[in-house]
Amino acid sequence: MKKWTLVPLVLFLVLSLLFYRALFRENKNDLPSALLNRPLPEFQLPAVLNPERLITAKELTGEVFLLNVWGSWCVACRIEHPYLLELAEQGVTIYGVNYKDEQADARQWLKLQDDPYVLSVADVDGRLGIDLGVYGAPETFLVDQQGMIRYRHIGIVDKRVWEEDLKPRYQALQKESG
Amino acid sequence: MLQVIRYVISLLTLSLWAMAANAAAIDDYVFATPEQQSRFIQLTTELRCPQCQNQSIADSNATISEDLRREVYRLIGEGKEDQDIIRFMQERYGDFVLYKPRLNAQTLLLWFGPLLLLIMALVILVVIVKRHRKADQPCVLDKTEQAELDNILDGKQ
Lengths: 178, 157
Known about the structure:
The complex is a heterodimer. Chain A is α/β, with parallel strands linked by helices.
């Protein structure tokens, strides 16, 4: 048997491995954020609970924080909410982007369900969502002290996601900034 | 017979309904020029819906596709070039949003993989054919072999 007769076999195995990994990787529906290591997009939006106050991206920077995209219409956000409250209680800074929501519903939600956010901005038409590359809710971004997006989690943040994905990165960023 | 007619009618209604549903995805945008409209159609079929994953934003009824169609419309209205609009989408949603991926290190295999496989298949084919030819060729003996054979045939050993 000549050496080259093994080539198709090796090729087949390599391709199989490639396809296997693509088929069975975790979170295969998650798209990587195009904004990683880029600054938070500029915006100027009213705060949900205080519409007269306009919030800009600059006001959010200065510490490591989570930016959570939510809506009162979003069922998964309802499931996520109690854990966000827990995180806020632990001292994690969370800002909210209220994505494509009725403002009355959003305010009612924050009053009835408690408010884990330092503040939420009202992205009524979803423009900020588009600038963030958001395609659903909930999505959670990890932003560093310089206001750079460093990580994105798509879907619910729960204990497992926090412990395994977000917390190590959050702590590393805090250490990085001293 | 009546049943067949009924069947055909229901099929027709169904297809009409499907057409109407399809048209609903194309929002009622008014364009300044027919050229803008054709650019809009071209762009929205080239951009992929980030949520539904296998539809273009023209085909999809997802709210995100609706939003992205509105953005394309807005950008066309602002006089942006096609490549600017595509870059706008790409900066936010990554390469995923393009049905025609750019050529870079990551997409090299995507672009040239099929060609590579074709070349390999051709090489293998050529090798196999050559081997067959060899097997088909008449057996030619060299001088000593021929002499040996003659000896055997003559019964001389």
